[in-house]
Amino acid sequence: MKSLAMLGGGALILAVILVAGYYQNPDANNEGYDVQCVQDSQPSTVAPTLTCKMRSEQNTEKGKSKSPWWYKFLAWPEGITAWLLLLTLGAIVWQAKETRKAAEAALLNAQAVINAERAWLVVSIENDPNRRAPFQTFIHVLNNKGRTPAVLKSIHIQYDFVSLPDNLPVPPEYKGLIGMPERLFIVGEKDLPIGIAFDPEKITFMRSKIPQVQNAQEFLVWYGRVTYEDVFETQTKNNLGKVHETRWCYAWSFGDKRFVCCGPGEYNCNT
Question: What does the pLDDT look like over 136-185, one tens digit per residue?
């Protein structure tokens, strides 16, 4: 739109210059007419009078015709000046477009580098390494898959029994806020336990859901989210950068004795 506006302005300036040059030409105003006044030669008793006649002349010089209307587009100085101005505006518009393309390409390259280097937090449910037989307990594990540290902001973990994992409410409602130290840094790909260890079969028994879970009439699902900042956002925006989010949702498979990813897309995404 800006380029079109500049070209339109250049065309308007060109038209103004040509029109001004046209009306400043005396030949264009009198259209070749010359007014001559002669004295009446007939004798008369009254004072001689002057008789004015207008005669048409095609040009002040013999053999030359009036210049065509388009001559101003090529004539010096009006036409040449206008064309130079228009060409200058065109060069400015072209250079502005190229500069904008280069800036957009540089921004995309910088964003690609940030995405490749920034922190990416992933949460999974793993076997609790500190479990005691015969109990089978699990723990939520946090890993940083990126190449730079992450600043952890919040953790939500909760569970529920549902008829089908896909029937979870959308959008998700997170209420199980986990207490954590302020500004916890996650560095490198390390299994960081979050939350507390839990026994899915014990939870099922306490909720009197064993028959329903065994018959796949209900499912025990664990879901949650973590929010964090990456170091790029933190350094460039004075600790007020964009907050990233990782969400997860797992269902307990009673027959396989393990957790599997499940739920709507809103429960399994990251930013």
Answer: 899 999 999 888 888 889 999 999 999 999 999 999 999 888 887 677 88
Q: Are 6 and 92 in contact (CB under 8 A)?
A: yes
pLDDT per residue over 244-271, tens digit each?
999 999 999 988 899 999 999 999 999 8
Domain ranges of the chain: 2-36+49-115, 121-267
Task: Give the integer Cα–Cα distance in Å for 55 and 34.
Answer: 6
Higher-confidence residue of 235 and 142: namely: 142
- Closest of 247, 210, 208 to residue 228, by C-alpha: 247
Smallest CA-to-CA distance from 177 within 164, 195, 193 is with 195
Q: Are 259 and 250 within 8 A, CB to CB? A: yes
* Two tokens, residue 67: 């210049």
d(C-alpha 104, C-alpha 112), whole Å: 12
Classify domain 121-267 at the CATH class level.
mainly beta
Q: In whole angstroms, give the CA distance from residue 255 to residue 203.
A: 16
H or E element that contains 195: strand 192-198
